[in-house]
Amino acid sequence: MSLEANNPNRETWLDIPENTDFPIQNIPFGVFLTRDDIITIGTRIGDYAIDLGALHQLGYFEGIPLTDDIFLQDTLNDFIADGRKTWRSVRNRIAEIFDKNNDKLKNNEKDRKTILFTLDEIEMQMPVEVGDYTDFYSSKEHATNIGKMFRDPDNALLPNWMHIPVGYHGRSSSIVPSGIPLHRPQGQKLPKGADTPIFGPSRRLDFELEMAFITTAANHLGEPIKIEEAEEYIFGMVIFNDWSARDIQKWEYVPLGPFLGKSFGSSISPWIVTLDALEPFKAEGPKPEKELLPYLRTTGKKSYDINLQVALKPENSEETVISNSNFKYMYWNMCQQLAHHTVNGCPVNSGDMMASGTISGPTPDSYGSMLELSWGGTKPLKLNNGEERKFIEDNDTVIMRAHCQNHEVRIGFGEVSSKILPVFKD
Amino acid sequence: MSLEANNPNRETWLDIPENTDFPIQNIPFGVFLTRDDIITIGTRIGDYAIDLGALHQLGYFEGIPLTDDIFLQDTLNDFIADGRKTWRSVRNRIAEIFDKNNDKLKNNEKDRKTILFTLDEIEMQMPVEVGDYTDFYSSKEHATNIGKMFRDPDNALLPNWMHIPVGYHGRSSSIVPSGIPLHRPQGQKLPKGADTPIFGPSRRLDFELEMAFITTAANHLGEPIKIEEAEEYIFGMVIFNDWSARDIQKWEYVPLGPFLGKSFGSSISPWIVTLDALEPFKAEGPKPEKELLPYLRTTGKKSYDINLQVALKPENSEETVISNSNFKYMYWNMCQQLAHHTVNGCPVNSGDMMASGTISGPTPDSYGSMLELSWGGTKPLKLNNGEERKFIEDNDTVIMRAHCQNHEVRIGFGEVSSKILPVFKD
């Protein structure tokens, strides 16, 4: 099936802002609460949210094999499980419906009123129920920076790093959409020079700039996914802020990995941008520096040119952009991650989420965490309001943005914005 | 509400085997496929499976506030979310219905035929949809054994171990009930002395003897569970075989913990034995050897005296019992695990599963993994059929059993039995 929805020349009859992240070529998928307190599946064009449940009930998806309630659900899991052919048909149809040369909905005021919402009328929800969440560690620059700071500056990368897209299982229950504030976590920390831990609020609270992909039902228990087929099972991507409490993490993580230093919360941008919409922005990633085992070898463009930005906004103050990076810096690509994840037969289901790991670029202004930007707290960042930051303080908001841009079209993710509240009190 | 269902003097009108794991005092909960290909929630008394969906439809739970379809579901998640008062009411009522002094169902042949199944008529399913699965590392003997083998024999326990119930996130999608075979996983391994990994089948395939608890919806994002309240949120327990590929695990696990060495499969016993049924077997665990931070301090009996056994059965051969252990050896108890898990505000949902970590006792015949029993492969185990084993071979079946016994009653878990098949071929 063709990617008609990607036609860069198509315009919409909707009134949308110039330079929006959500032109008619994007057509992402999300879940929102409407003004009538109904949860529905929808898409977004410009600053309009579009109720796909209502569109379907009104017959606009006629001819596409969809169950009646596919969009009247709390999550996208079932729609994603329907597979790529269905996603493409629906995305192509949405492009047609909102094409400026199509009068059907444009001239039907009653239908328009049922289907269209302005952004202030809706509340975005988690787009999927995440069955399992995996976090990779696929930026060479990030892994090197961390290795230099915490282990041996001369052997910053561990021996397995060049051979394996290193990853670990994360906590799905604490993944929340943009806008949900999080309390500063408490936990055990080992003060410098002490041999007994103390309990208290994290004092080294950090973000991690990541992108995550969402899978469809991919394989059965025991059956690996071949790397050539991996892309078929990826529905789309979101921005992922993997909040981290460095002091808690440092004390707990040996030998079994990060746990409470991460599981207090992760924040995502609420619109899933499909891999189809990102097609024009395919890019080459770095060349492997060591020969890979056959199950991890890819050819052609398997990365994406996605511009990334992190801003920090203190309470009642303007924001400061503190990092500019790009997804294409990632050493390991999503196909390698998915092939590796399943090479042992681990089943991957519809709605599973796999994050990239912190995306750090080659220069200090492209690092993807406060830990790296302030180099372990030794080089505080200057903010536009005159303040300094080594780590995240109470009532700070961290905003991450992502978009692709070529000479024809801009495809964006919007943002994930989340505020850190003081420690929870009973 | 009283624990009437635990009355050790009650007898049932059902014909049940002597010394069964499932006397009328047990009343576990599970999910099964019936002879009519319907999935239902049920319990077990002796060798009868009892259809709770049918019992409810026939009015036997009258007076207990339950939704109509609470037992007509594919998982126990919603029933568990109803909370302890409901679980107790239902368990007490089931005890009444099958009490030998109650003629109502006993004398109703038609109802009996609808409700009762023999074990060969049903197929056990996963009892819950596991939202998140956590694996702890709470046996001091196991952590010490592993530390001796892989790190420093003189400093086997890492500095954080005595202060933290160390845990990590595991993969929920590959947890399967007893009876489902697993393929030997493949993956990357580093041969001795090499600096480049090879790809192939795991040659150090192992089990881990664990118990897991299943939670109800416990807290909201940001809100820790107090240790005094932790027990309230534990529904029950199962036996948990945390299959492990030691060669894959060894190469991949630094610095972020176990991943593909574990995620190819975990096996559980299918009947959840409630914490209520285990009440008579409460026991003291080991005394903390270091002073604990206040949020981890417990008083009274917080462990359980559960006898554990592991048997290995080669294809077409008798089984050999290779380990006898007990859950009460665990250094950290379930209340400490749950309080720790949530102290940072991590939300715990109905159906989440938390495994203990390998349960090793003080003596070599009570170790909970092949890695320890054969001491890294240096002391092969002799089997009854004359063969030897360092690790698990193709077509071996590993069977784990668990039960509690006092002078009045035996409460058991049945078994988790799973066979290892050769590597998966397309």
TrEMBL record, chains A, B:
Key words of the record: Calcium, Hydrolase, Magnesium, Metal-binding, Phenylalanine catabolism, Tyrosine catabolism
Pathway: Amino-acid degradation; L-phenylalanine degradation; acetoacetate and fumarate from L-phenylalanine: step 6/6
Residues reported to bind Ca(2+): 135, 208, 210, 242
One of the record's GO molecular function terms: metal ion binding
EC identifiers of the protein: 3.7.1.2
EC top class, as a word: hydrolase
Presence of keyword Calcium: yes
Binding residue positions for substrate: 137, 151, 249, 253, 358
Active site as annotated: 142
Cofactors that this protein relies on: Mg(2+); Ca(2+)
Fumarylacetoacetase N-terminal domain residues: 25-127
Residues engaged in binding Mg(2+): 242, 262, 266
Protein's GO biological process: homogentisate catabolic process; L-phenylalanine catabolic process; L-tyrosine catabolic process
Record-annotated Fumarylacetoacetase-like C-terminal domain positions: 134-415
Similarity remark: Belongs to the FAH family.
The protein's name in its UniProt record: fumarylacetoacetase
Lineage start: Bacteria, Pseudomonadati, Bacteroidota, Flavobacteriia, Flavobacteriales
